[in-house]
Amino acid sequence: HHTQAWLEEVVLVIQSQRNSYHAHQTPFLSYPTLFVLSYCQEWFLGKRLHDNEASIIHHYAFSEDPSSFGYPDPAAGWAISMSLLQRLAERIQYERMKSDFTIDLKHEIAFYIWEGGNGPKLTAVPEFCTQQRDYCATTFTTYLPNCGDAVNKEDIFVAVKTCQKFHSERVPVVKATWDKDAAFLEYYSDVTDPSIPTIHLGVPNTERGHCGKTFAILRRFLSDSVPKADWLLIVDDDTLISLPRLRKLLRCYDPREAVSLGERYGYGLMQSGYSYTTGGGGMVLSRVAVSRLVSSGCSCYSDDAPDDMVLGMCLSSVGVPITHSPLFHQARPDDYSEDLLSMQQPISFHKHWNTDPVAVYTHWLQDTQPRDEL
């Protein structure tokens, strides 16, 4: 039996971000009619998503039957009863999180609430919607808002990190897919190869981390050696990205602000840690953010330190917020819920493992209309 709840009995939590674009969206929110099933029982409600196969971003949880575990679609919103909220608030005070990393918050919240079978699983409620229906309490418009004409190609400088052993394997994929959509693009490697061409920044290649190389890219971006652009995009050589869609998204942000944009992960957030944008999904920085970071003197503790995490730590120290967009993806399409991706116009994916990267690009990222129209 559903009983209507008074608005005073419902706590609405609105997840937003600190850039001016997101702040300006708050007045346009509408408040739906909400229903309460029970004041005393523990309820966890939302639109259910699930994995079709074991996913690296979910630590291969429920690998024997990935679809058996549901987690909420944040675009539809989700709800927990006050009794469950109070118990979770008490639990989190004394129980340390099992991982220092926050990778996919919606899955990790569901896993934490489930508590190995001791807590409730997500109950799928049809009133939580991402498409408009008469019965919906919530609905959703788009992850890629229309803020006006896309920024110009010349407004973005693209830096591709590579190394000699991938010149013949990965770089040709970039050239066959998305590099032609860039006005300014440079490949940075551990050797100079005029056939690509690549640029050697004087930083030795490292098997992991690449922090030294990334900070050299930041300094080069601010120098007179490259064309002056509002935005810097740093990607790996196995990143697949739609630059036309990125140009459309960047129209929503003011390059005169310190902006760091991408897929946001977290480290040690329960212990005064920091957020960072994942390198494989693409890291977007405004010139103001790069300038503030470089001038702060914050730097790598070693050339092979994880560049995306060090960048996040440095940006946090200088007060630059990490802005999350779910359109950037650190992993392959197969690692995400089909229902979730069906609602998106993705901007990026990462990794060539066990996939045909050109086919992934064509299916998920290539727009059929002329690029200049986006």
TrEMBL record:
<comment type="similarity">
    <text>Belongs to the glycosyltransferase 31 family.</text>
</comment>
<keyword id="KW-0808">Transferase</keyword>
<feature type="domain" description="Fringe-like glycosyltransferase">
    <location>
        <begin position="151"/>
        <end position="357"/>
    </location>
</feature>
<protein>
    <submittedName>
        <fullName>Beta 3-glucosyltransferase b</fullName>
    </submittedName>
</protein>
<keyword id="KW-0328">Glycosyltransferase</keyword>
<dbReference type="Pfam" id="PF02434">
    <property type="entry name" value="Fringe"/>
</dbReference>
<dbReference type="GO" id="GO:0016020">
    <property type="term" value="C:membrane"/>
</dbReference>
<keyword id="KW-0472">Membrane</keyword>
<dbReference type="GO" id="GO:0016757">
    <property type="term" value="F:glycosyltransferase activity"/>
</dbReference>
<keyword id="KW-0812">Transmembrane</keyword>
<keyword id="KW-1133">Transmembrane helix</keyword>
<dbReference type="InterPro" id="IPR003378">
    <property type="entry name" value="Fringe-like_glycosylTrfase"/>
</dbReference>
<dbReference type="GO" id="GO:0012505">
    <property type="term" value="C:endomembrane system"/>
</dbReference>
<keyword id="KW-0735">Signal-anchor</keyword>
